Amino acid sequence: METQITELFGLQIYTDKGMFIGEVEDVVIDVDSKKIEAIVVGKVNDQLFELKSFKGLKIPYRIISAIDDIVLIRHLPGAFTGSGTTEE
Question: At CB < 8 A and 24+ separation, what contacts does 9-13 make?
């Protein structure tokens, strides 16, 4: 199934543990290999990060589990701080 890259913009990003990370703002592409390298996160969940000198957040494409109505990434213990989970 082929998808336009522009269809990714604005999709919400969650970990497989239900933690909201942010929204897809941009995509980084390696033009030589014609592959997506990373997605750039915008509207970052401010409960997860202290953004004092925030320069942007990129999520490597290799940790993305699925893309459909949302982007689902593998939960990496210790990668995200805070209490922004939706677990009950």
Answer: 11/67, 11/69, 11/70, 11/71, 12/70, 12/71, 13/39, 13/41, 13/59, 13/70, 13/71, 13/73
Structure tokens at 61: 């494409």
Tokens read off for 6: 């522009």
How confident is the model over 21-79, as pLDDT tens digits? 999 999 999 999 988 899 999 888 877 766 555 666 889 999 999 999 999 998 776 66
Q: Whole-angstrom Cα distance, residue 49 to residue 79?
A: 10
Q: How many helices and strands, by DSSP H and E, does the chain display? A: 0, 6
Distance in Å from the first CA to the final CA of the chain = 35
Tens digits of residue pLDDT in 2-14:
668 888 999 999 9
